[in-house]
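Listing S7. Sequence submitted for prediction.
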Amino acid sequence: MIELKNISKTYQTSGQEVKALDNLNLQIRDGDFLAVIGHSGCGKTTMLNIMAGYDGFDRGTYLYDGMPVRMPSSGQAPSFLRHQIGMIFQEYHLLPYLSVYDNIALATRYQRSDCGKENIERLLDNLDLRECRNKYPHQLSGGQKQRVAIARVLVRDVRVILADEPTGALDGENAAGIMKIFGTLNSQGMTIILVTHDLAIAKRCRRIAVMEKGHVVVQRDLLSS
């Protein structure tokens, strides 16, 4: 489904060259639930940003369903990638002046409004957000905020979720709740790539990849999920 071949990415920071990715190779299968772990600065977030089309790369090949992905000169992700992939962040990125419902609805602005409303109502029920629909982000717990962020991605009917430390700001109970949601989504066919520092969280995925110094050094299946 997704294949990164010999991907390299270098940044210029304060006049110095920083190699974020160095001949990285990774294959994501359709329906995967992959945890990516590694020390801070090893390139995990850079890799996710490239997969999402938020960032380009210097060398290598990015294939999505066998099609080469190239960043356009505008710097925006190719349109087909934006409709296929959704990203979830540690810090939620909810708009503070919009209600829960409107934060989710914002993601449907390019869809038919009727279809969007149907999906939002379904997600409010499925993610236990019905009582929060008219609340604002400052009135929510961390777990509720992350469920809103998940709903905002799911309402777009994406095939792939990229999650960058989605449980990093949550306590154990809320983190477990988010991982249960991801497990259910994966069992329904959603492909999920999750970056984490927490080995206990990683062990709840189906596969694990370990990164060091800008490339993947280990990939293996896990017995439990």
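Caption to Listing S7: primary sequence and predicted structure tokens for the chain studied. The two ends are 21 Å apart (CA to CA). The first helix runs from residue 44 to 52.
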